[in-house]
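Working notes for the structural subgroup meeting. M.R. asked for a predicted model of this chain before we commit to crystallization trials. I am recording the input and output together here so anyone reviewing the notebook later can reproduce the run.

Input as submitted:
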Amino acid sequence: MNVTQLTHHDLDGYGASTLVGAVLDVARIVHIPRYSDVGPVVEAELKRLDKAPAPELLIMTDLGLEAVAVKFIRSFAALNRRRQEDARHRLVVLDHHASSIDQLRDQGLEPVADPEIPTLRRFELGDPNIAILIDEGRCATRMAYEHRNLYATRPVPAEADAELQALVAAVDALDLWKKERPAFAGGLALDEVFWDNVGTLVPVGHPWHDRFVGMLLRAVAGLLREGATPARVEAQVGAIRVGIVDTFMADDPADDPALTTRMRIARALARSDALFHRLSDGTLLSFGLDSGTFQRVSDLIMVSGRARRVVNVQRVGTLSFRSNDETALEGARRFRGGGHKDAAGGKLTGGSAFSLADAVAQVEPILNPPPPDPATSPFAALKNWKG
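Returned structure, recorded in token form:
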């Protein structure tokens, strides 16, 4: 069964995806930084699932449910009713925001208290393929661990399970801000490691991204399980990253271990087809790369001859152009921007973007507008006038 996970872009969201990935093969993970982006994402998922011939599993973790998300859940149930019983999709929602309960209630879904877990609320839609659990007393990572029977296809070995339990304890203490717990200091250290590395080495969208972050979180959790202090964790992160990158680059003949981890990874990123979309004029467009990564990768792309111009679009709607043929400024000017001939920036007319596909849809028609249709030109009427 094809599995997709939608999760929040923070430590708890990645903790939840790490836990799910430990017991289930997930084909695609979508990290959503802003709850305002949940609507467009779930609408796209609903359209995709409507056309999917085989049943799929969709897991949503740590996403505060707003009205549009609750509407999606109802639409998901309606979609299932229209499908043959053996082709119905599965939906698992694991969340811990009090506002989610309010939104579900506002749309007529009343919670059912769990007799064993006082803080847990379940919501029934009359479809055994849909499980909606909201627990204010647990973070999403802990919920993913405790409710893995809803989706797990394989057990976790005892040694790995102890590591995952340490991860759960640290994230739960940090995310619920339980400063009195012994695991809280480790949670703070884990959170620092997460934010320092989640977007600066292997960016979202690259096939290695979730594997890299998951390996990093589990390695730090292993240190915490051994009783490591936050200072020791900080001191060990560099070596952990090198070990992970060594694993990724083991079969790459162009790898140079004498370089920094970012320099080594940048060479692999510059060859990636997943991170870039080629626009009609040959410009390569990326989405959400941090500025340091974009600078290194864009230079490597142009040196290799893969493209003469590269543009990076951020979620907030800013664009960074790089070129080696003095066309960066020309591109930026189409987006109310400016700068140097080979390094310039601008701003999307739509204000922001939520995915690579969304960025492409906004950039392509402005950067490469279609030629005017002669039939609609002001001179067409004069040409055909017979007065």
